[in-house]
Design goal:
The protein has 2 helices and 4 strands, in the order E-E-H-E-E-H. By secondary structure, the protein is of the alpha+beta class. The chain has one domain. A two-stranded antiparallel sheet has the order 1-2. It has a two-stranded antiparallel ribbon with strand order 3-4. The protein is rod-shaped and about 85 Å long.
């Protein structure tokens, strides 16, 4: 007699073998779901951190612009001047 597993969709010779394989598959699924949940939570936390940093930067920029009527947004690295706004727009759009 063969035993069919709804979990693995496979026939087995003994009920013990069937149960063992089902438990193995279910344990793997649970571990994968836990990893995915942890990664999702980490991604959300880091995304929130980035958003807060952008909000702080834009608040500082607004205050500076009010006081000094503008600000030149450039990044200078070893003679390479790149416009921050263009980098931001290219990254997001």
């Amino acid at each position: 007699m063969k035993y069919y597993s709804e979990v693995t969709k496979v026939f087995y010779d003994t009920p013990e073998e069937c149960k063992e394989q089902e438990e193995k598959v279910l344990a793997e699924r649970k571990a994968r779901e836990e990893r995915e949940t942890a990664l999702k939570a980490e991604r959300e936390a880091r995304a929130k951190e980035v958003e807060e940093a952008f909000n702080k930067a834009f608040d500082l920029l607004d205050k500076f612009s009010e006081d000094y009527k503008g600000y030149n947004l450039t990044i200078n690295r070893k003679g390479n001047s790149t416009n921050f706004i263009n980098r931001f727009l290219n990254y997001w759009f």
